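Provenance

Sequences were taken from public entries as deposited. Structures were produced by running a predictor on each sequence independently, with no templates supplied. The record for UBAC2 protein from Polyodon spathula is shown for reference.
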Amino acid sequence: MCSLFHLSDKAPFSKSLLIILSALAFLLAVPFSKYKSLFMYNLQTIKQEFQIWRLICGRFICLDLTHAFCSSLLIYNFRIFERRYGSRKFASFLLCSWVFSALFDTLLVEALHYACDVKVDVLPSGLLAPVFALFVPFYCSIPRVQVTQVLGQFTITNKSLVYLVGLQLLTSSSFMWIIALSGLTSGMLYHKNVFKTQNVIFIPDWVARCGSYTLEPLFSIDEPTLESAVGMGATLDIQRQQRMDRLDQQLLLSQLPHMRRNTQQQGGQINWNRFFPSLRQRWNANHQADPRLAQNTPANPLQEVSEEQCYFLLQVARLMEMGFSRVDALEALRASNNDINMATNFLLQH
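Predicted structure for UBAC2 protein:
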């Protein structure tokens, strides 16, 4: 069954969640600011009057635009997990962390009251604890790829910006550390599957099907089959390049069995021009335009390609099959020392 909650290359759940949270935060900040008090995350009111609706709204809608902006930026960066695990599991992670962090918020506030005699009535509102929970799989499963160095000592990686945004969100309120601690704890419980939490709290299948029927049409945009007669030249060039990349990918995959048989017959050497004449000519033209890529191919068009280079081209074809361009795939593989997993994570992060 090809549904939204199983095939999620476009991360539809993250995008819809991002739009809803941003819209609600803007509405309560500008036109309906007088109703903010109804959506405050007031633990004392919830505990004394058993207002469940206030608990749900207070832990979902951001009343501070700074919190809304930082959490939205983090959700946008964490959409990589929806692409990797699927929308259903990603939504189950958010739901489980939301439920457990609500319990941990209450426990931490009570512990702070009895241990330090500090009474906390109102906590920062919004979908903040699940956002902090996503830092657990981000730290554990996303590899660090060095981008540059500052002053020769401080290393900037592909994860530095996300951590800086998380630090900004953590320091934006005096009691945000309670939300962060409860979120990280709940994220650890789900990521490690403590007490079989992944089997206890999850999105039901009928909810997944409803999400597929409602959200999939909004985020699945068919690619144009023909070029429009009217359009900007740069846009048409990009479309042509994307089609060329797809043809290259199909050609590489279709000729792979012939390449392997030819490698066995020739003792590990492949005649490139025999199988890829047109592709080779176009690739040489691209390398003349971009000299940085020249080191990845032989200088002589008639030179035979080794088995190691064929393996490299196969890795490029796999990345192109995921939707990345040939140039980005080559640069990512070169930066990751031909590790396709690290190159994939690097491309998804950028």
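The chain has a mean pLDDT of 76.
The longest strand covers residues 146-150.
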